[in-house]
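Researcher: Next entry in the queue.
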Amino acid sequence: MEPLGFFEIALRIIYQLSPVWISMVILFALSIGFKRRLGLYGKLFDSPIGMIGFGLVMFWVFTGIYGAMDMIVTHDPLTQVSGMKNKLPGTPVRGAGEGDYEYYLLGGDNLARDVFSRLVKGAWEVIKIAPMAAVFAFMVGITLGLPAGYYGGKLDTVLSFAANLILAFPVILLFYLLVTPEIVATGVPNYMAIVLFIFPIIFVGVLLNSRYYTRPKLRNWLLPVVLGTIIWFYLQLVSNGGYLINTPEYSIWGLPRAMDLFDIPGGILVVFVSVVFVNSPTVFRIVRGLTLDIKTRDYVAAAQTRGEGPWYIMLWEILPNARGPLIVDFCLRIGYTTILLGTLGFFGLGLPPESPDWGSTINDGRKLLSIYLHPALPPAFALLTLVLGLNLLADGLREESLKD
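Model: Structure for this entry, 404 residues:
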């Protein structure tokens, strides 16, 4: 078989991504059709910048999801095919059997693996870590930032000092310290996971209790059900192989194996915890600053006059009125987290060396960058477009939130 030309490669990639295009068309059609009923999300489709950003983000979200389902990958991203080392895009696969895809659409890397399939699988690595890490960082930042800004005094001083202490460390150095094998062997990331992952439980518990405090019958059954489910999920997150902590020196039992439905791989847990830990102080400072401003508003004074409790005021008066800046920062935070994940992968930290994440793929490709451009350019372009999309999405949300 002859190598494919540029347009043939482009057409085959477009066809291979058919599920992504179909999903995006359906999503945009439904969103535009019902945008007047969808609040701030619907208003996003009145902003050309926001729509472009949203389209870029959703393209990689759908690519990651369908890639994880093996619907659009052409080869196993870890399989090395003899004779395909550093082959150019569109090169026919030697000895391809029946049912195998005949070409490496974006060429082969220095270990003879398919660059296109690694690009698609790498999207899933980013999508499954970055948004959830941003959510957990916001849970920590909101839970600590609201009382710091509302109460002030010694509580604010202590929490602000702790946040500034963490922010004083260079981010890359802090990441390097957290993900090095020596630190991981001590179980420090597991201890951090136990502490950081408990904040969503605190947040949800206080949120529901403050909202339904005057309706004890509803609260008394709602709280145990919701918190019990979240605690069970929390124990599954922090338990690995039936242990909360499992080091040569010390072990703590976790969930029984029969109840522990899934384990987070050690490398992903370390990276996840590190990202949450680094992002939380910045979110804390943003929430604290917004709380200091909003707590002086008349509607907060009216709630205090009605006799509402402090946590009700923080969670149901202050927080909803801070949603605009927080939503914008959330989008930017995901982009920042994506860059951090790429940086970690580039330096070979955290995720396993064979991981198809974009940072690791760029690092593998850069070693022969002066000779072969094709292994490094696609993941670099993917990282660029995803972060650009998140920034444009944040700009669109900022524009529309200012109109409220």
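Model: The chain is about 65% helix and 5% strand.
Researcher: Noted, moving on.
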